[in-house]
Write a structure and sequence with these properties.
With 495 residues, this protein is of the alpha/beta class. Helix content is 39%, strand content 21%. The protein has 2 domains: 157 residues, Rossmann fold (3-Layer(aba) Sandwich), CATH 3.40.50; 313 residues, no CATH class. The strands form 3 sheets. It has a 6-stranded antiparallel beta barrel. Strands 2-1-3-4-5 form a 5-stranded parallel β-sheet, with helices on both faces. A 4-stranded parallel β-sheet has the order 7-6-8-9. The longest helix has 22 residues.
Length: 495
């Protein structure tokens, strides 16, 4: 079973009864023809009913239900009836989008004029009266190719919303007393539709021990060895890691309940190593590559953020510390690769070894250096083995987080940038990140709005989708890195 939802778009054209419904029908046909060209393979269903009244709206909803549509596109082929069209969105039960037809020719502005530009205003007003959140593109009025492009952009946004509403997060263990950074109220999870099952580390440990003699361990350990190839520096720990991976997946299967998708937020130190006798990072990386986030350090909202990214991009995510600055000598040495970025635009994104191998250069199974210093300072590593380490590949990235405040309000941030081809010269899964105006973003968003140190990372530029998805999920405060010359609300203008 895939851990991401499949989206089937249901497209319904609407028509105000004083306008010809044939105009909406013709324009709908042109939109669906363009959609197939713009995004081949997109799964959609165009309802045969043109909605002019409430009875039509109910008929169209029945069509969509029978067709298995789980995301709604309301297309104003002309002015549209704001009552029935917004009632349809209210009753649909899934994410919805509204778009409208632009006029097509100056030669046909009598019978061929639809006034959807005007109708869109009334539709948005009525959505507000009904308390319905719908996705409305930045400029929602266009000819068929433009509307088709908007619908294609809505598909990943809808995937995020559908996935979040069907998600269950399993957490194991509380955060340590001196490292509470990722703790946050769970009430907003329920507001989003996310289920949360909090468990003790003892629950995980007992389940892990129950899998001690599981017949699947040997085969999975061989699969891991094959995946690691020459990077398999510690083959002796693979069977323990295989046992752990099986434990997590079996737990999800037994406890998923009414939810269709799942993620984990697991405590991974300091007692984990002494009791389980390994570091779980490599398993976390493997599951993330299958769109099953396993966040480090019981970071529940980190797991949620990773899942949102996976649904938005359909590319494996990771979770990294916004970790350390780039030394001045490294900055000066690699100016060609760094380009026009300033040193304050740079930071190193790091975690012990949870990033999927597809995003690493020459990944290797290693041991957690920081933990070894305290847990087994002498001799060869044993209980600290299990990290997947390497330099993060260069390319476009987006950092993102969806978080609850201490008083249970959702907030989010999103910023696009790149991983640079600059050797990080350090351990773990690590890379040199560049975000335009990162210094100011760090101070006035990350510090100013009290975000924790973990950022979910999308491999590619996904800001447009993530920003829109966060808004559609009901997040009012979605911060981004302000360009030079545009001040944050609390930024000192005299600095």
């Amino acid at each position: 079973m895939s851990n991401l939802p499949e989206v089937r778009l249901g497209i319904v054209a609407v028509s105000r009864d004083c306008f010809p419904s044939a105009l909406s029908r013709r324009r709908l046909g042109a939109v669906t023809a363009e959609l197939g060209k713009i995004k081949p393979g997109v799964d959609f269903f165009a309802a045969g009913t043109i909605v002019e009244n409430e009875t039509d709206a109910l008929r169209a909803l029945d069509e969509l239900k029978s067709a298995g549509a789980n995301a709604l596109v309301v297309y104003l082929g002309n002015f549209g009836p704001e009552g029935p069209e917004t009632m349809m969105a209210a009753k649909f039960g899934g994410p919805s989008m509204f778009a409208a037809a632009a006029e097509e020719s100056g030669e046909d502005l009598f019978d061929g004029r639809g006034d959807a530009y005007c109708g869109m205003l009334n539709a948005s007003y009525n959505l507000g009266l009904r308390g319905v959140r719908a996705y409305i593109p930045e400029y929602p009025v266009a000819t068929p190719p433009g509307v088709a492009s908007m619908i294609a952009e809505f598909e990943p946004i809808a995937r995020v919303v559908i996935g979040v509403r069907r998600l269950k997060i399993f957490s194991f263990g509380p955060r340590p007393h001196d490292f509470l950074a990722c703790n946050a109220p769970i009430k907003p999870l329920y507001d989003l539709g996310v289920e949360i099952q909090e468990n003790s580390e003892l629950d995980l440990y007992a389940s892990f021990n129950d899998h001690r003699d599981d017949s699947r361990i040997g085969g999975l350990a061989k699969e891991m060895a094959s995946e690691l190839g020459e990077g398999n520096r510690h083959p002796g720990v693979l069977e323990r890691l295989a046992q752990y991976e099986i434990t997590l997946l079996d737990w999800a299967e037994r406890n998923r309940g009414a939810s269709q998708h799942f993620a984990f937020a697991n405590k991974c130190w300091p007692a984990f190593q002494t009791q389980f006798s390994f570091v779980p990072c490599y398993v976390n990386s493997r599951l993330a590559s299958r769109f099953i986030p396993v966040s480090c350090e019981t970071d529940i909202y980190g797991a949620l953020s990773e899942y949102v990214i996976a649904a938005a991009t359909q590319v494996a995510p990771t979770l990294l510390d916004i970790n350390n600055t780039v030394p001045e000598d490294m900055f000066n040495e690699h100016k060609a690769a760094i380009g026009n970025f300033r040193n304050t635009d740079l930071f190193m994104g790091f975690h012990c070894g949870n990033t999927p191998s597809c995003h690493l250069v020459a990944p290797e199974m290693k041991y957690q250096l920081i933990m070894k210093r305290s847990l087994e300072p002498e001799g060869e590593p044993n209980i600290t083995r299990g990290t997947l380490e390497g330099t993060i590949r260069g390319g476009d990235v987006t950092i993102f987080r969806l978080q609850s405040t201490a008083d249970a309000e959702l907030k989010s941030y999103v910023a696009e940038g790149a991983v640079l081809d600059v050797p990080p010269r350090s351990f773990g899964g690590i890379g040199v990140f560049a975000i335009p105006e990162m210094g100011r973003f760090y101070r006035h968003v990350l510090i100013g709005k009290r975000y924790p140190h973990h950022a979910a990372v999308a491999f590619g530029h996904a800001g447009r989708t993530l920003f829109a998805a966060a808004k559609l999920l009901g997040v009012r405060d979605v911060a981004f890195n302000q360009p030079a010359g545009v001040l944050y609300p609390d930024e000192n203008p005299f600095a």
